[in-house]
């Protein structure tokens, strides 16, 4: 199954790549590949465990004890984290936790404070 987008003009599924463009062989419509990635980034929304949208600079609260990999430290339930930064990847929150330091968290284990 192809991962190429459908044609925005005629919705044909037979599109193909040609350099930096996608081309539809049915209607001859061409559009840049970069527009696809910009739309995907704009559509990317990070939500907490309750479904609230998270943004850069928000404060969050940890809702589950989290073991720190490679250490005997544990991030306890109720730990407040200020000034988060959203990043791409499986662990989509980058932050600093007092007493532990810089680490990345999954948004499914936090709620917006």
Structural class: mainly beta
Mean pLDDT, to the nearest integer, reads: 89
Number of H- or I-type helical stretches: 1
Q: Indicate the proportion of strand residues.
A: 25-35%
Report the biggest beta sheet as strand number plus sense, adding barrel if it closes: 3 strands, antiparallel
CATH class of the largest domain: Mainly Beta
InterPro entries: YjdM, YjdM_C, YjdM_N
Protein name: Phosphonoacetate hydrolase
Domain Protein YjdM N-terminal: 3-32
GO molecular function: hydrolase activity
Features:
single chain; 113 residues; mainly beta; SH3 type barrels; 2 domains; three-stranded antiparallel β-sheet; 29% strand
Topology at a glance:
Blueprint: E1 16-18, E2 21-23, E3 30-32, H1 33-43, E4 60-62, E5 66-67, E6 74-75, E7 80-81, E8 85-86, E9 93-97, E10 101-105, E11 110-112
Antiparallel strand pairs: 1-2, 2-3, 4-7, 4-11, 5-6, 8-9, 9-10
Keywords: Hydrolase
Family: Belongs to the YjdM family.
Domain Protein YjdM C-terminal: 46-113
């Amino acid at each position: 199954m192809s991962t190429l987008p459908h044609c925005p003009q005629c919705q044909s599924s037979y599109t193909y790549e040609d350099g930096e463009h996608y081309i539809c062989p049915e209607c001859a419509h061409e559009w840049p590949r970069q527009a696809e990635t910009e739309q995907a980034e704009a559509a990317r929304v990070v939500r907490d465990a309750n479904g609230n949208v998270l943004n850069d600079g928000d404060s969050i609260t940890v809702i589950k004890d989290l073991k720190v990999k490679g250490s005997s430290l544990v991030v306890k339930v109720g730990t407040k984290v200020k000034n988060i930064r959203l990043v791409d990847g499986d662990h989509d929150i980058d932050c600093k936790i007092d007493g532990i330091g810089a680490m990345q968290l999954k948004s499914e284990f936090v709620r917006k404070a």
